[in-house]
Amino acid sequence: MSHSDKLPGRLTPDRQWSARESWRMFGIMSEFVEATDRLSEIRPAVSLFGSARIPPGHQYYTLAEDISRRLSDAGFAVISGGGPGLMEAANKGAFYGKSPSVGLNIKLPHEQSGNAYQDVSHTFRHFFARKVMFVKFATAYVVLPGGFGTLDELFEALTLVQTRKTRSMPIILVHAPFWRGLLDWLRDAMVRNGTIDEKDLNLLQVIDEPQGVVDAIFEHYEKRGFEPSAAERELLLNL
Fold first, then answer.
1. How many domains, in total, are found in the chain?
2. Residue 77 is part of a domain; what is its CATH number?
3. 20 to 30 A Cα–Cα from 202, which one of 26, 80, 155, 156?
4. What does the alpha-carbon distance between residue 115 and residue 96 come to, in Å, rounded to a whole number?
5. pTM over cut 0.85
């Protein structure tokens, strides 16, 4: 260590990093506060996920847009990741429907450009803050074909519902041929080896028809309404 490193008030590189980490907590707190304030009036809402790589005109793009438009016209705000592909299709369907189209964008090293179909747009620096908002304000998850990010959001929701860290809600997989291999693996590997219970598979529904997605969400809430109960609000405070 040089003499200059020992001067009073001089921070070593390690201490400089530690100080930056501490101040970073305030940025994370502000991200949660700002997003919660921005989204608190957007209810009921459905979070819709799918690949960023699917172009307009593709079967999955058309399917996502159709589902989203029907959800919007039925009174649901639609929340997507705000980017291209099926996120764009989700926002586009809602944008031309009756209810708000919401994009929760994320800053990435290879910059993700937000799509043009967002009534409400909010950008996050941290994936984990963004993921909390997808769950916190959702009455249902609708999951179309996608990659690692889509699977990440799917299993996040499954884990939170399974462990009762959030309220029970419909988790709907769209387009059975795409999901068949995953569902077979869950049954043949995880259930068979006892890492999940067979009843855990009931947390998932597979629906191919756009109107069937909307109907399944209404059916789930038919006897209880969309607003969280007092107990469920407590759960959501502790996500």
1. 1
2. 3.40.50.450
3. 80
4. 14
5. yes
